[in-house]
Design goal:
Layout: H1 15-23, H2 26-41, E1 50-60, E2 63-72, E3 76-80, E4 90-95, E5 104-114, E6 117-127
Antiparallel strand pairs: 1-2, 1-4, 2-3, 3-6, 4-5, 5-6
């Protein structure tokens, strides 16, 4: 019968981490757990995101698509969309801020994908005049 501490089936790159954790005292394990929990909850973005609901049109592979920005910052946004896109893909998007008559245009790069949409980093933002 295998014991709970048998690490022979774990991946080789996980062995040093497992050994490190096994050698920590209970108090150190609790401290590490608290630090990791507080770190996980921090927003690590340079510019905080603000919730929004802004319809955006974007072009990808010469096809026009639509989505809804659910949050936005100076650096990027999360776009709710069901389109099949990939990380590092570039899009050209345009959107209107509420009560603005001039569209905002951006060349953006997809930096992460989720089941409900994707996160973009603005490469270039232009305001039509």
């Amino acid at each position: 019968m295998a014991s709970g501490n048998d690490r022979s089936n774990s991946a080789p790159d996980q062995a040093p981490l497992s050994q490190f954790l096994d050698n920590l005292s209970i108090d150190d394990q609790r401290l590490l757990s608290r630090l990791l929990n507080s770190w996980e909850k921090r927003d690590q973005r340079k510019n905080p995101r603000m919730p929004c609901r802004i319809i955006t049109e974007f072009f990808v592979n010469d096809q026009e698509q639509k989505g809804v920005m659910r949050n936005i910052s100076l650096d990027g946004a999360f776009i709710e969309s069901r389109h099949d896109l990939s990380v590092n893909q570039h899009i050209a998007q345009s959107f209107f801020f509420p009560n603005f008559e001039i569209p905002i245009r951006s060349n953006s790069k997809i930096v992460w994908i989720a089941s409900r949409g994707f996160g973009v980093q603005f490469d270039f933002v232009q305001r039509d005049t």
